[in-house]
């Protein structure tokens, strides 16, 4: 792949991130939550491994939410009418976001709660 093609690929991906943040209230919520997690981790002086765990689960939530949003948009485009199959697809995609969020909350709890209790 040429360097120019690679550059434009990254530009489209950055554009996608911007679209998600501008058009989706969930995107802005994730951005605020991410800033809060970073601030809390810095304040509580997390170790490198704790930072890594927080980064992984935060990234997982972003990944799940962005793919869920893309799936919702595809379904609204190809099948705007009510259909049981669309319900199944959208519910399962939303379930992936929930699974990632529960994991992130659990890891956040394991990392932050003992540090907060020790203050
Ligand atoms: N075309 C459809 N046919 C059947 N059920 C649908 C359809 N569109 C939406 N639903 C149901 O409504 C739910 C919400 O779908 P919608 O596309 O409104 O997502 P949303 O409210 O924008 O979700 P999110 O909060 O994740 O952005 C789906 O999980 C599904 O159960």
Tell me what the structure shows.
This protein starts with a helix and ends with a helix. It has one domain: Helix Hairpins. It is globular. It is mainly alpha-helical. It is 88% helix and 0% strand. The protein has four helices and no strands. Bound molecules: adenosine-5'-triphosphate. The site of adenosine-5'-triphosphate has 11 residues, from helix 3 and helix 4.
The low-confidence parts are: none
Helix-and-strand structural type: mainly alpha
- Strand composition percent: under 5%
Number of domains: 1
Shape: globular
Helix content: over 70%
Q: What are the secondary-structure elements, in order, as H or E?
A: HHHH
Nearest-integer average pLDDT: 95
- Which CATH-level-2 architecture? Orthogonal Bundle
What's the CATH C level?
Mainly Alpha
- Alpha-carbon Rg, integer: 18 Å
How many helices?
Answer: 4
CATH topology: Helix Hairpins
N- and C-termini, Cα separation: 52 Å
Catalogue the ligands. Answer: adenosine-5'-triphosphate
| Strands, count | 0
Give a short account of the largest sheet.
none
Oligomer: single chain
Label this structure with key terms.
mainly alpha, magnesium, lipid biosynthesis, 4 helices, binds adenosine-5'-triphosphate, Helix Hairpins, 88% helix, kinase activity, DAGK_sf, transferase, 119 residues
